[in-house]
Design a protein that fits this description.
Protein name: Sensitivity to red-light reduced protein
CATH architecture: 3-Layer(aba) Sandwich
Number of strands: 5
Organism: Modicella reniformis
Number of helices: 5
Largest sheet: 5 strands, parallel
Keywords: Phosphoprotein, Two-component regulatory system
Distance between the termini: 7 Å
InterPro entries: CheY-like_superfamily, Sig_transdc_resp-reg_receiver
Order of helices and strands: EHEHEHEHEH
Number of domains: 1
Radius of gyration: 14 Å
Structural class: alpha/beta
Mean pLDDT: 92
Low-confidence stretches: none
Bound molecules: magnesium ion
Oligomer: single chain
CATH class: Alpha Beta
Helix content: 25-40%
Strand order of the largest sheet: 2-1-3-4-5
GO biological process, one term: phosphorelay signal transduction system
Amino acid sequence: MSLRLTDRKIKVMIVDDNDINLSILSKMLEHHFAETVEISAVLTSGTDALERLSKEEVDLILMDIDMPGLTGVETTAAIRQATEHPILKENQQVPIIAVTTSDGAAQREVYQQVGMCDCVSKPIALPKLRSAIEGAMMKSTGRLATG
Ligand SMILES: [Mg+2]
């Protein structure tokens, strides 16, 4: 299956308060998804994510959960509700994948309820990351090339 969008690479935002985690995830995307993914933003807080999503359209967000200030869950809720932040309409239903060590069944249930589409455990396993990205992009209809 192709991960490409019909006309361009998938614009991915990654959000994690830990610089080492951001670096690991960036390198995984650069090495293993170079043909399909373009990293459009690397941010260290939910607040920064909300700010960026009010200005620039993205196709997918990989979001840490445990962050000071807004958690990944709170950030996701703010994106979906878009009441307190002027989130671009195009971003309000953007697929969001949790990337976290907080990956128990009860927590996954919370992520799903708040509007996240999948959860990838840390440390990140490449096959799981790949299937989560593919699944997320399949669900955001009509955005994948079928070739
Ligand atoms: Mg964290």
